[in-house]
Amino acid sequence: MKKLTSILLLSLSLFGCLFHIAELPDIVSANVYDDIESKAKELEQNDTLSTIYSVDNYVERTTIYQFNYQPVPFFRFWRTRVGDCTDKANLKRKMLHYLNISTRSVYGIVHNGEGWGKHDWYEFNINGTYQDIESEMFYGLKKLGSGRW
Known about the structure:
By secondary structure, the chain is α+β, with helices and mostly antiparallel strands. Helix content is 49%, strand content 23%. The protein has a single domain (30-148), classed as C8orf32 fold (Roll). The protein has seven helices and six strands. The longest helix has 15 residues, at 48-62.
């Protein structure tokens, strides 16, 4: 695997290709996924909803929101714990994926009490229905419609 990574990165640099490192997450940073899976399993609770709350609380407590309109590479967010709403939603989804909880990404418009803005979040599936807990739990956000997924 190291040889393949070296050849791929050398090829990219020789041809002057500018690829965002996030496009190669499995090659560049496979151990990050092991760390995330391990942490997710530590956070698992006795029931699905408690597990979702546990993961959400962990990500919110251990990360810093930085409004920047552009997500950072996944492995960098895990290491620095600084990112935007997309980064946080993606981390929560990845952790819940390791716990076999179905989720989907949602992009939409929200009102935070001061004005409207773009926002990314995730929804989880319980009993065939997608739901979210973010708006009630963290921000008091009011969503315009159901967003796109």
